[in-house]
Amino acid sequence: MAEIDKSLPNTRTEVDIPGEEEITEAIEQEITEESTQQGPIEVIETEEGGAEVSFDPNAVDPEGGENHFANLAEILDDAVLDPIGSSLTSDYMDYRSSRKDWEDTYKNGLDLLGFKYEKRTEPFRNAAGVTHPVLAEAVTQFQAQAYKELLPADGPVRAQILGVSTPEKQDQANRVKDFMNY
């Protein structure tokens, strides 16, 4: 078996780190090059050592687009749009086929409960056509229970004093309850 030396060489390499002046000059040169291409750019140095860059975003106009919210389908070539459309259609069909078993189970469950899908036009187009008494009873029971919980006779806020009850704590609880139930 061949031996491979995996150690790193013990050599020093000098890294040239530019000074602050060189970095500042490079940034200023880059900004002046961009300002000639895109429009007026103003750079204001802050006291903390940062910089605020101001420019007119309307001066930057990408090729073929007037607006950030432009319709890309009108800008892109058909050679780009066709593969995207094909991919999206394929992904949608895969998604529909992957959930087919779930849809069938859901429909069978509703059939076993007595619910039937009907295309109705009364009282409006695509209105629900479910007329099973279990659903109506469940809705009524839920509404009755929720009404008692959400709108109790003494108001929606209850105050409970934890620990030793003192007149000050009782007054505070009553004030909070009266305020919230107002």
Fraction of residues in helices? 40-55%
Shape: flat
**Biggest β-sheet strands, sense, barrel:** 2 strands, antiparallel
Low-pLDDT segments: none
Instruction: State the end-to-end distance.
Output: 87 Å
Q: Which value, in Å, is the CA radius of gyration?
A: 36 Å
Mean pLDDT: 76
Provide the structure class: mainly alpha
Could you give the order of the helices and strands?
Answer: HEEHHHHH
Q: How many strands in all?
A: 2
Description:
- It is a single chain.
- The chain is 49% helix and 5% strand.
- The protein has 182 residues and is mostly helical.
- The chain has a domain at 99-150.
- Strands 1-2 form a two-stranded antiparallel ribbon.
- Strand 1 (41-45) and strand 2 form a beta hairpin.
- It is flat, with a radius of gyration of 36 Å.
List keywords for this structure.
single chain; 182 residues; mainly alpha; two-stranded antiparallel sheet; 6 helices; 5% strand; flat
Short description:
Helices cover about 50% and strands about 5% of the residues.
